[in-house]
Amino acid sequence: MIYSRMVAAGAVLMIGTPAFPQPVWPPPYAAIEVQSEHVAAVSLYGINSNGTAAGSLSGPNLGFVWHRGRHLLLEGVNPNYAAFAVDINERGWVVGHGADFTHSAPVPTLWIDGVPMSLGTLGGEWGEAKAINDFDHVIGWSKNVDEYSRAFLWRDGAMSDLGTLGGLGSWAWGMNNLDQVVGHSFDPNFVGQRGFLWDNGEMIDIGTLPDGRECRALGINDLGQIVGHCQDVDRNDVAFLWENGEMRSIHNSDLGAISFAQAINNSGQVVGFTTRDDETLVTQAFIWDEVNGMRDLQDLAPPNMAPKRWNAADINEHGQIVVSAQRGNPFNGGRAVSLLLTPVNPTMVLTEPLPGSAGVANTLSLSNATPGSTVGFFYSLRGGGEIIPGCVTRVNALQLSRPTLIGTTVADENGVAAITRSVPPIARGQTILFQAVVQDECAISQLVVHQFE
Q: Which of 15, 122, 255, 292 could be stapled to 142 by a disulfide with Cβ–Cβ 3.0 to 4.6 Å?
């Protein structure tokens, strides 16, 4: 049984960090930190249903594609300048912007199997692609010959101007597989913004919240549900959901004064971020659904996570979410990192260590394993995420950061496995996270968080 870099030397638990509160409920997500071999900040913006994510690096400033721990760097058509990726479709085509040899500024760019292709512009010198659907159609914005920004749709090798709501400029932010496009348009006086839905050649104003005003539409699913943010009666930006011609706020004021919805999947799950108007650097990623409302994603992730200031950018059909975060203080050497939040589906039950005291031997017991299967028991001081070798991330992942293998054992004919190890006296008062895995089946237990007496 190979556990890759999760294998540890020795079987004694080495403890040395402060305790932290146990979660209110078992966290439903693993949070895998996405890293690059380069010393660079990683920012992810899009994810497809294969769990492949696209984004960008800062230093070097290049596009970035990540899949199960492996990554691909993306250069622009002109490799001497920066390139940025923002979205990816089911077959791995990526869009963003980069330099070419005919324009003086970055232009919409499409990467096919890592090879860049300039999509050109609407006649101006600048533009960005913002989304791509599964039919390889691309949307974004481009300067036209008069140097106004205009929303575009690129398909069949040609770029079309989608028009405006009466003003001079517009931006497209999201699209679905029906070629319905959402974005915002400036009003005729070029002040203020209105969210739009473009469908089959017609652009409509999706309106505002009651007594509200400016809006941006940022995401749309295949059911025609639209999300974004609008100013409310107090002129705070709040997340909205638009469906069947009606717009409503999905904001939760307990999570902050301001919220931005950025993406919605076909299950109606919405992700984005909240912030406080007096602390704009302190952001919290959220997920919203009809049953649970808006929830802080850090409340649903494993405890004692190191990265802070989360911002959820996209969600796929399996409920996997890409999150930008901050490791350390942004004013004191901190850097941007990204996380893949992936749902965990426990099928085995792990007990807390018994007797639960430091300085003596403790036993971890697991039930509901397949008889005869090899079970690995792991621990960590921090919550997070780790890919299980040989398993796709959308199935399961460990909810531990840098997990240490305690040992392995074989489940008996009743599907029960147990392991006993000495816990040193230094563990007294410390909180440790435990999880068990059957690697061959990609099966996992729930996360156990225990404070030793």
A: 122
Residues contacting 372, CB < 8 A, separation 6+: 410, 411, 413
**Is residue 129 within 8 Å of residue 96, measured between CB atoms?**
yes
Q: Quick one: which of 434, 290, 301, 257 has its CA closest to 356? A: 434
Q: Are residues 332 and 367 in the same domain?
A: no
d(CA 110, CA 122) in angstroms, rounded, equals: 16
Residue 452 tokens, joined: 């030793």
115 CB-near residues (< 8 Å, 6+ apart)? none
Write down which residue in 307, 342, 377 finishes a domain: 342
pTM greater than 0.90 (yes/no): yes
Same domain, 153 and 196: yes
Q: What is the CA radius of gyration of the chain?
A: 24
Q: What's the rounded Cα separation, in Å, for the pair 227 and 230? A: 10
The CATH number assigned to the domain holding 409 equals 2.60.40.10
Q: Which residues contact 333 (CB under 8 A, 6 or more apart)?
A: none
Alpha carbons within 13 angstroms on the beta-carbon side of residue 121 total 26
pLDDT tens column, 286-344: 999 999 999 999 999 999 887 888 999 999 999 999 999 887 665 555 678 899 999 99
For 202-216, the pLDDT digits (tens) are 999 999 998 888 999
Q: What is the extent of the structural domain holding 63? A: 29-342
Does 19 fall in a domain?
no
Measure CA 425 to chain center.
39
Give me the phi and psi of 297, to 5 degrees please. Answer: -65, -25
